[in-house]
Amino acid sequence: MYSQISFASFDLNSNIKRSYSSIMNLEFDVAKNILEKERNVNPENGFILLHENYIDFLTIIITEDFNYFDTHKTYKSERLASINNTDNLSPYFLYSKAEINLQWAFARLKFGQYAKASIEILNAYRMLEENKILFPEFNLNNKGLGLLHTLLGAIPDEFSWILNMTNLNGDIALGIQELNLVLNDTNLLMYEQETLFIISFLRMNLDKDKSAYIMYLHRIGDRYKENILLNFTAARLSYTLGQNDKCIKILSDRPSSLSKLNFYYLDDLQAMAYMYKLDLHSAKKKFRYFLTNYNGNNYVKSAYHKLAVISFLQNNQEETSNNLNNVVVKGTLYIDEDKVSFKDAQENKLSHPFLIKSRLLYDGGYYYQSLSEIKQFIKLLDLSSLDMQAEYWYRLARIYSKLDYDQKDIFDSYNMSLEKGVNSKRYYAPMSALQIALIYEDQNNLSKAKHYFKSCISMSGFDYQRGIHQKAKAGLNRISN
Questions:
Q1: φ/ψ of residue 194, rounded to 5
Q2: What is the pLDDT of residues 44-64, one digit of tens each?
Q3: What's the whole-model pTM score?
């Protein structure tokens, strides 16, 4: 296999393997020392450049430090120029250049630099396609192609011009298949952790195959205790499977960060997990720790919004007001969570305590407790706003679905949410259409599934629109194959 062969300028030796392993565990100082030793004995090894780029990429993605991004972005062209002087007969030649382009594209997306990111994605795609023709047995090529095919297969409609302009092809099923080829290749075990991370998050966002989530979680095993990225992956998989207590245990057992880059977003996740079981004291403590230590801008508004929800549930009006004010004045508006938090804070709008608690318990997988909370709201239903009525019926349907209630009760509740929320800017109506479509897809009633997926996509101007439309488009993609 090409993946185990060393070429003149791409020597996959023990130093390179150890540096990569350290990078995947966010031990960047250790990796830098190993790469410096390799540079002293083998200065033309192209893997040095690629692995240094990994360090920059992960630092930017995890810390969201714009100053770091701004001072290191020039290294991209320098590294690509140096790789151009390496062995162009190696399958790693185009592969490394594509990886560097992809990594900087995703780094730019963090800061809203969409035009340059699009060009880098296009360059990476073309390099990987060319490399596939030149070296058809080079399986590692499928890591980047799988990522791109999957993401492009669910690209929101407002960005479909990118596909039309560049002739890129998106195909979710093909992308997952390509990533599985890498994941299950015994010659590519070195890349298993990275591929597990990529494929897990893609599938959690774009399909609903929980058997796959269970398989990935089983494959990770106890390794989440030693590796930060696997800890992150296992925590998110557990949460998606409705196993909130396991999620808390995984995050509590994460490896020490003394020799690693601090990954403070894990504290935000842990705070949310405490919130889902209504352990408000622990949640508040963790959110404050996250906000005190985290230097990035994303998730700041949403963290303050969750603190506002906690103080609201604790009947502390002054603290609620202060937290909502922080939502408005702190952080940025790049991601949907922060945008919705900002909108709620501007409108000084929080839902009813019964609905909030029901949602939190549902998100943690505590479905019977969630049902108990929402049933207390029924006495207030007729007196509530249409938004709250739409939320009530939507959440009731989700709970009924998890507890295997009669399908008629589930559909009736979703349809009530559609009726009450049709003119709302909240997400309950489009999400109801999406959930109905997913049920029909499970039943292989593809015509009705298609109708409701399209119904979801036809709605616009609501919270979390991009992500919800992406899931609906992924559903249409699945049933058309």
A1: -65, -45
A2: 999 999 999 999 999 999 998
A3: 0.87
